User: Fold this.
Amino acid sequence: MMMIAAELTALKPILAAYNVTLETDGTQITKVNAHEAQLDAVDYMSDQLIKVILEIIGADVRAALFKKNARLM
Assistant:
């Protein structure tokens, strides 16, 4: 089942508990944390959308680890 606006609204505070912020316009996700995004929640099932959001956050985590490791060398 694809997501609707109410489900996206319900997901926002859950993600906020993990320090992930979404900016939305209806079913459109326009930002994930500081990253520009063009995701329409209706195109995804909830588990798929969560995976996409976590991929975006994962890129930040990998970059932070790379920078930290570079300073240690």
User: Anything to note?
Assistant: Helices lie at 5-16, 46-72. The two ends are 48 Å apart (CA to CA). The first helix runs from residue 5 to 16.
